[in-house]
Amino acid sequence: MRPDTPAENVDHAAEAARLERTADLYPEDAEALLLRAAAHLELSGDRPAATRLYDRLLSSDTPSTPLDNPSLVRALKASNLWEYDHEAEARAIIDGVRMAAPRDPAPWVIVAEALESHDELEAAHETFTEGARLLVADAARPPQPTHPLLYGRHRVRRMLGLEHDEWDALADTLHSMPVSLDELHDPKRVWSLGSDDPADLEAEISRLRAELGAYRQALSRPFPVAMLHWPAGELAELTEAYPSLSAEYPSYDDHLASIEAALRELASSGTPNLGVVPGTVPSYEAFAASEGASPADPTLLPQYATTLAARGLAVTWPPQPGTACWCGSQRPYGECHGA
Fold first, then answer.
1. Is the Cα torsion angle 285, 287, 293, 298 positive or negative in sign?
2. φ/ψ bin of 221: left (φ > 0), alpha (ψ from -120 to 50), beta (otherwise)
3. Per the confidence metrics, is the pTM higher than 0.85?
4. 173-225, pLDDT tens digit by residue?
5. CB distance 153 to 167 below 8 Å
6. Which of 19, 30, 171, 205 has its CA 20 to 30 A from that of 164?
7. Chain centre to alpha carbon of residue 258
8. Rounded to 5 degrees, what are φ and ψ at 148?
9. Contact at 8 Å (CB) between 328 and 255?
């Protein structure tokens, strides 16, 4: 299912089953695929089945096969459990996520919003603040993935009637929609829906359209144009197993330089939504087998990259300021290939 498929046209149970089958074929991508399957099960109303998928993922988190983001899985499980009356277990998991202090903003946002949606506003405010203190700190321009932390904290503080602080002002600065955060997060907004004044109703419709536009922009982005990146070890294994591909990849440094150059050329031509997607030899060989082709065929490489991007595995290019370079060097992008 493409992200822009209308929700009313989706058979969520069937889509979840398809994603589970795909996860069995591509175990290296199982985490991302099963999380999407669980989301479809939640949308279908089968929350116990979604919990079983979260448990399946957590049980697979071993030293030999660790999850990429176990805190995210736990946060989603907690949010789901609370929705079908497993409050005590959900609270315990939320406490565990907060104690783990993950470095990814998504788990913080999910558990904070779970608390918020069940009127635990003080706890939600504490959770948003803990996440912001850890991941935003004093950054004048925090990375885009951390913005929902600041927006959520702003929203909860408005509902609690708290005065604006520096992070609220920063959230206002980062917010780019026509309607301000103060308007979107005004607790009294809903009162206007009962007004007999057409002007009040029209203003509220404009606010709701702006808010809906933000969600659609986040959820309905097209697949990125992704460049295939082989980490050093994978590239060595690939060219050793299939020597004919050495013509495509003369050296690892040339491989990295060609990716950056191609992305810059695409960006200068106006191509939007660019990305880099990492490949692995086992995954590539499985893809080639599914296509009935030889992994030595270089024309298969762009198809493989497109398939990985369609599974949501691409990393956005260029990286946000201050974040690590796409090449895996762990150096900031601006000091590495972005220099």
1. negative
2. beta
3. no
4. 888 776 778 777 877 664 555 566 777 777 777 766 776 665 555 444 555 68
5. yes
6. 205
7. 27
8. -60, -30
9. no
